[in-house]
């Protein structure tokens, strides 16, 4: 006899790579890493608010890696994890949104300062930061829906 109660759980092990929103860990790491690399490769003039962009990209890259490992090793047992998953991704989305806005502002300020390569790298960093923001927002929404259904 089939049960009318469905059990929702957070995936563990390789199931992380087959479920939504957890499959978004990989593109979050890729685009977050690209923001980190692109900002690190530009010339920084003093004073410059790109320090916040670097902090956000490094923090989110490291913490998302740790979060992915927690899911892979199955340490996400218990009722608090769906809420923590939603909370982390909401925080990361907010951080990346602020970093993307700051990076866009810095790019506009230094658009006429040579070399052109620095401007192009900054534009790329802005695009990648907004893509990372979008990925974290989608992950937050899907995690919140999963949390609500638990």
Can you give a write-up of this model?
This protein is mainly α and 150 residues long. The protein has one domain. The chain is 68% helix and 0% strand. It contains four helices and no strands. It has helices at 25-40, 50-72, 81-109, 116-149. It is elongated. Residues 1-7 have low confidence and may be disordered.
| Largest sheet report | none
Query: Which geometry do the CA atoms define?
Result: elongated
The succession of helices and strands, N to C, reads HHHH
Residue windows where pLDDT falls under 50 for at least 5 positions: 1-7
The total count of helices amounts to 4
Instruction: Decide which structural class fits the backbone.
Output: mainly alpha
Tally of DSSP β-strands: 0
| Radius of gyration, in angstroms, nearest whole number | 18 Å
The percent range for helix content is 55-70%
Domain count: the total is 1
Mean pLDDT: 87
Strand content: under 5%
Task: Determine the N-to-C terminus distance.
Answer: 22 Å
